[in-house]
Amino acid sequence: MQQNARIGKLDDFKWIAALLVAAIHTSPLESVNVTADFILTRVLARVAVPFFMMVTGYFVLYAAVAEGSFQRIWHSLKKIGFLYLAVTLLYLPVQGYKLLGSEAEISVGALCRALFFDGTYYHLWYLPAVMIGLPICWALLRLIGQYAYAAAVVLYAIGLLGDSYYGLACRIPLLKQVYESMFGIFSQTRNGLFFAPLFLLLGYRAASGRKERSVKQSRYSFVLYLLLMCAEGLLLHLYTEQEHNSMYLLLPVCMIFLFDALLAGATVWDVRRGTFYKTGPMLFYFLHPFMILIIRAFVKLTKLNFILEVSPIYYLAVVVGSLCAAYLCLTVFQCARRIRKGRKDK
């Protein structure tokens, strides 16, 4: 019963995380206050993707290590790979249209970079990151045990200097040259090599024996470090040159206390967690960029420019449209499954 309650709390926060990802891609406060939008979308919302990775570490990585078998990792990699292929095919016409209107040459290196690091569409980088991160974490835990955390921290630190702290790294000529060479392989250090391992391992840690804290202590600590991360993000944004703004020094600390608070506290709200409630966030995550394209096309046709100009309305339109699209997709999947099952029964 306790384990079911914990899973329910994680399901609750998946919706919040999905909404935060949509906020990153739509900037809901941009027309209200630019600084407030930066804090929301470039600092606060950065907890979303690490949370999803920690959930994977909590369930998949922990189970694989507990069983002492790579089989569960391999099974997960196949599922993620199939999902990656399916969503890539969904966005393939969009990418094809972009390439037709671009003079950029397509090279094997660019295709490999997109496939393995950057994602075949801008939000799909998460899938190859997890597919690379899981085997790395498995190998680290098997080879060096508890020192795997230290190795993941080192990888994260390397990524940090190529992300939010690039303004400091580029002041050292040798480091600047190293990172420029790295950016020839991948566009950013937020990927499966530098970003994913630490958060996957933090999820594993939460499942394998986290330090017990009171709900109040975890929540207060999370809020405190989140506020400090806001200060960190603003200082870096104002006074340094950031290559990207996905990785912060305090982000892993925030995630430890957030995850602990979710696992130790009461459910966010008392609802019947049906199929859509559990799978909706994933569908929302993958479909919301498609809805962004549809809304932009709708505005272009109708000349209702206020939808894009008033950023809260734009965000709300994307959220509502994505929820409807996710529900429609799930309904179609369930109908197809029933038809297939009916044919087998005959």
Which descriptors would you attach to this protein?
346 residues; mainly alpha; 76% helix
Q: Radius of gyration from the CA trace?
A: 21 Å
Structural class: mainly alpha
Low-confidence stretches: none
Tell how many strands the DSSP assignment holds. 0
What's the total helix number?
Answer: 15
Termini separation (Å)? 38 Å
Helicity, in percent? Answer: over 70%
Strand content: under 5%
How does the overall form come out from the CA principal axes? globular
Could you outline the blueprint of secondary structure elements for this entry?
Layout: H1 2-26, H2 34-42, H3 48-67, H4 71-100, H5 108-118, H6 126-144, H7 148-161, H8 166-169, H9 173-182, H10 196-209, H11 215-239, H12 251-264, H13 275-302, H14 306-309, H15 311-345
Helix pairs in contact: 1-3, 1-12, 1-13, 1-15, 3-4, 3-6, 3-10, 4-6, 6-10, 7-10, 10-12, 11-12, 13-15
What does this structure look like?
This protein is mostly helical. Helix content is 76%, strand content 0%. The chain is globular. The chain is built from 15 helices and no strands. The protein has helices at 2-26, 34-42, 48-67, 71-100, 108-118, 126-144, 148-161, 166-169, 173-182, 196-209, 215-239, 251-264, 275-302, 306-309, 311-345.
